[in-house]
Amino acid sequence: MTRLVIGLCLMLLSACILSLHAGLTFFDPATVISALAGGEGTDALIVTTLRLPRTLIGVCTGAALGLSGLLMQSVTRNPLAEPGLLGVNAGAALFVTLGATVLGFSGLAGIGTAAMLGAVATTALVFLLSVSARGADNPATTLLAGVTVAALLASFTQTLLLIDETALETLLFWLSGSFADRALNLLFLGLPLLVAGCAGSFFFASSLDALRLDDASARTVGVNVMFVRIAALAFAALLAAGAVAMAGPVLFLGLAAPHLARRLMGDTLPSTRALIVLSMLTGALIAVVADILARIVVAPGEAPISAVLALVGVPLLVHLLRRRKAVSL
Question: How far apart are the first and last CA of the chain?
Answer without folding.
Answer: 18
